[in-house]
Amino acid sequence: PSEIVEGSSVTLTCSSDANPAAKYTWYKGNRQHVHGRGTYIFTSISSKNRGKYYCEAKNQYGVINSTSLFINVQCKTKAFPITYMFICHSLCLSLHIILLLPDRPNLPSVSVSPSEIVEGSSVTLTCSSDSNPAANYTWYKGNRQLIDGQEGNFTFTSISSNDTGTYYCEAGNYYGVINSTSIVIDVRCKLVFIYRPNLPSVLVSPSEIVEGSSVTLTCSSDANPAANYTWYKENEESPKASGQIFTITDIRSEHSGNYYCEVQNSVGRHNNTLHLTVVAGTFFIQRTL
In Å, what is the CA distance from 58 to each residue of 29, 30, 35, 68, 219? Predict the structure, then answer.
């Protein structure tokens, strides 16, 4: 008889031409196993299931037994389908075995996404292999183990130039281990342009202000790295405010004068001036570039 692997699914099927339709009973030796159906399924066959089996077909006009079938449960590493047919007069007994037999992993397939790798981006390495039982995957950089588990993915959330190198994946199960081909990760430096702040833009709000109201001065400039903002009043050493926004509450005539915003980063600095004249009830604005 053919070999059946322990742990696989095995189906015994019994059929007979009868009118009225027959009822079926499966036996192992003299012990009844299943009654009423022509199919007897081992979902995970074991060595305890080894032995002789036969099927009984019965209706109100008679009973007939099939020939015996010997089931021998072994270990094997090749997968194949088998069908046996046993004919005894009008009784047909068939054994159809579908074996999903264990095997070592195939050569793993590896990929990297995205294909263009820039420093600071997210990069995922993927490894997969057909195997039974399912493989565990281990990623290596050179000889250093990075990650191990049933998921074949390894992700750099923010890749850096230090991650440049050669990587490979190992797929392994109970029956063997196999390594993928190597892939080379080349991390390109991210191009960053730095420049000093442009001439800042200075604005005042609202456009019509009555003495005693609140006035807001706003400064903005394009710079890389981002600029720091400081507000000054001409002829005064101490800054009036820091940040892009400078608010004067309850504005009075003594607030008249030149105000300038200075923007500065590690590359350089720039400033722009706003002239503010406050009179009783109204004020005048004059910008000086």
Answer: 18, 17, 11, 17, 98
Each residue of 246-262: b (16+ CB within 10 Å) or e?
A: bebeebeeebbeebbbb
CATH number of the domain where residue 93 is located? 2.60.40.10
Query: Within this chain, do residues 94 and 113 fall inside the same structural domain, yes or no?
Result: no
According to DSSP H, which parts of the chain are helical? Answer: none
CA distance 27 to 49: 12
Predicted structure pTM score: 0.41
Give yes or no: residues 88 and 164 share one domain: no
Residues 89 and 53 placed together within one structural domain of the fold:
yes
User: What range defines the domain where residue 133 resides?
Assistant: 109-185
Distance CA 16, CA 38 (A): 9
Neighbours of 94 (CB within 10 A): 18
Mean pLDDT by 10 residues, the chain (289 residues): 72 88 85 76 80 87 86 58 45 49 84 91 93 89 81 90 93 90 90 89 81 90 94 92 93 87 94 82 54
- Up-side HSE of residue 80: CA atoms within 13 Å toward CB? 8
- Give a yes or no: residue 113 inside a domain: yes
Task: Answer with the one of 160, 185, 210 that is the final residue of a domain.
Answer: 185
